[in-house]
Every structure is written in structure tokens, then in C-alpha cells.
């Protein structure tokens, strides 16, 4: 098979890129390791920035998003007894929208069929070849047969564990990494949220987050040591801990219910450079990871894809090499800003095992400053709703 762009990975980055290219009549094929149902079974992000929803609007894949997404005007930071509200809408004029990654993915998958976007699911042994040349290709096995797709470019949208990043030689690459000493234990339940806005809490027993997927489905997290096992957390134990960490004002509003899903995700900050090597481009989690504090991961995948689709469309429809040449630099400038925000909010809202009274006093001082300063709140709000492209 021959195409213009082979996209590896049918997560949000790969699906969005595929749709944006198809819309501009650029040929592409997506190759995905697992089945569509498996992709939809992953419970991940819940908060979409305007940059992300603008892309869905541009594609016209927004009917359910507009009907079911919850517009959020602010967020709260809780610190023991107090709740600091940041009115992000008033400070920036922008909303974020609560709409799950699962739903975004489902909408993109369903539209793929109607729009002739080809997705090859359950492709085994996906390998990249000749990425330094102008004639790269991808091989994979499907139903026991080896297949090959030739292309002009390969887009590596295959997440943190995929093969694309590894196709760039170590001599050309650089990794920046911070692994955090805890993970987030999440619970999804069909109960109304305890609050109409997200609450990030820093309690002496640790971090907690109250989030949601809809008016009848809630998502909560607490941080736990990396050695912790999900089996040690019965639903009751987790609800009790959430009530303590979210504080006495919030606890009475928590509705408990059986877990639909419960899992632990480790926290990591990671940036890989370069985001382009020859004919291979990286986008989304394939190139960078942020800790989930601040809800940037999916949104960053979407902003990479906005730059990359512009670059590829310019190349194929206007013979314009400029976007291709500048992709890595442009994307990375935004990536580092989002890395900084996610890292600083993680530091502010978590109790690190190595921290002592000094570090805690710094957190309290920063939260006091945020509570009293419109400038400090604006800085958080601008990052939370999404920096401009
Ligand atoms: P994905 O979603 O990991 O998709 C990559 C796809 O590539 C496939 N793949 C392969 N395909 C072919 N061959 C191979 N060998 C392959 N290896 C892998 C995979 O099967 C998969 O389908 O990466 P993408 O598209 O870059 O999207 C990134 C986002 O998924 C991620 O950044 C977010 O989920 C992060 N994240 C959040 N982001 C937000 O913006 N807001 C949030 O509220 C938010 N909350 C979260 C999160 C991530 C979490 N976890 C579990 C990591 C909450 C959690 C708990
Ligand atoms: C979520 O709803 O899953 C969520 C919300 C905000 C975050 C991370 C995850 O910062």
C-alpha cells in the first residue's frame, strides 16, 4: 500500500491528525496495535482546553461535545480548611469543557468511518523503516500476514510506549525526565459530582482531586506511594480518604457509589527531543508526558497535531516546506510551557516524601499569595484554559 502520511497510533493525537489531513485531501492511514474497543476502555483525560475544542469545531465533530460537554468557569484549590476559587472565565474570557477522552475518541472513531479515514486496528509488530530518507515505510502484521505501507512521512502518535520515538537514534536524541514518588489512584463512579467545578486539594494526608465526566458521573483521585496496589483500596476506604483530604466543607457533598473503574497511574514529566527526525514526526505522549495535575496531556497532544497538520497540509497542497522545517521548534516551545505549569501545580498541591517544614511553608505562602492576588490567579487561569497556539 502507498499513502502520503502513515500515522502510528489511534489515540486522540493520531485520530485528530488523521481527520485534519483527510479534511484537506491529504492521504493517510492510521495503524493501531490494539482494537477500537480496547482504546475506548482506557479511562484518561476529562478536561478539554479551547485549543482542543476549536479543532473539533473546525472538523465539525462537535455535536455531542456541544450537547453534553460541561462548560467550566473556574477551578478550586483546597488547602486544609480553605477553598480558593479561581474564576478562569472572568480572568481570561475562556472556558474549559469537561468531556471525557473516551468520548472524544469515540466521536473521532465514528466519524472516521463516514469520512473515509482508514484505521487498521490490531496491527502487530509495527516497525518503522528508512525514517532518514524521503521514502520511509512501515511494516506490520495483520491476521498472520506481513504488510507494508510506503509513505512520504510517518507521524508517530503512538504514546509513551510506542515504537516511533525509539526509531530515532540515541546519538540524535535527548531525554529530559522527572519521575515523581507517587501515583494517582483514580475512581470513576455513576454519582453526581460533589461540586460543579474541579477541586485540587493539598491535605496533610496527601493530594486529592474531585473531577467529573458529567452531572451524573464523577471522577476522583488521591495520590498514593508508587508501591501501593489497587487491591488494597476497597471503594469504602477510598471514599473515606477522599472525604478527609477534600476537607470538611466538601465532604458532606460527596455522593458515594460503586467503582466503575479504579486504577493507579504513575506521575512523570518527560520531554524527548527532537520532535522531528528526517521524515518522522512525533506528536503527543510519544514525545512528552506531563503529570496529570492541570489536565494538559491530551490538550498538548491536540496542540502538537494542530501544528503538524498545518505543516503537512502546507507541504502537500502548497509545496510549502516552512511548516515542516519549523514544526519541532514551534511544538516544543508550547510543550515546555505546559511542562512547567504541570510540574509547578504538582509541586504546589502534593506532599513530597523528601519535603520538610520549609517546603511546606513555601506551599502555604504560595497558596496565600494566590488567594490574595489577581495577578497570581491570572497566571494560573491562562495556563489552565490553554496557552494560545
Ligand atoms: P495515547 O492516548 O497513549 O495513544 C497512543 C496510541 O498508540 C497506540 N500504540 C501503537 N499503535 C501501533 N503500534 C504500536 N506498537 C503501538 N504502541 C502504542 C496505543 O494503543 C494508543 O492507542 O497517546 P496520545 O494520542 O498522544 O494522547 C495522549 C493522551 O492520551 C494523554 O496525554 C492524556 O490521557 C493524559 N491525561 C490527561 N490529559 C488531559 O489533557 N487532561 C486530563 O484531564 C488528563 N487526565 C491523563 C489524565 C492521563 C492519565 N493516565 C492514565 C496516564 C488522567 C490519567 C489518569
Ligand atoms: C480527570 O477528570 O480525569 C482529570 C481532571 C483534571 C486533571 C486530571 C484528570 O488535572
What would you say this structure looks like, in words?
By secondary structure, the chain is an alpha+beta fold. The protein has a domain at 5-49 and 99-176 and 269-346: FAD/NAD(P)-binding domain, CATH 3.50.50.60. The chain contains eleven helices and 20 strands. It has helices at residues 12-23, 36-40, 50-59, 63-68, 88-92, 101-115, 235-246, 297-318, 322-349, 357-372, 374-385, and strands at 5-8, 28-31, 47-48, 70-72, 75-79, 82-86, 96-98, 118-120, 124-129, 137-142, 145-150, 153-156, 174-189, 198-203, 206-214, 217-225, 261-273, 276-277, 280-282, 288-289. The strands form four sheets. An eight-stranded mixed beta sheet has the order 6-5-14-15-16-13-17-20. A hairpin with a 7-residue loop joins strand 9 and strand 10 (137-142). Helix 8 runs antiparallel to helix 9. The longest helix has 28 residues, at 322-349. 44% of the residues are buried. The protein binds 8-demethyl-8-dimethylamino-flavin-adenine-dinucleotide and P-hydroxybenzoic acid. P-hydroxybenzoic acid binds at residues 45-47, 198, 209, 211, 219, 292-295. Residues 8-14, 31-34, 39, 44-47, 101, 123, 126, 157-159, 161-163, 184, 186, 265, 284-285, 292, 295-299, 301 line the site of 8-demethyl-8-dimethylamino-flavin-adenine-dinucleotide.
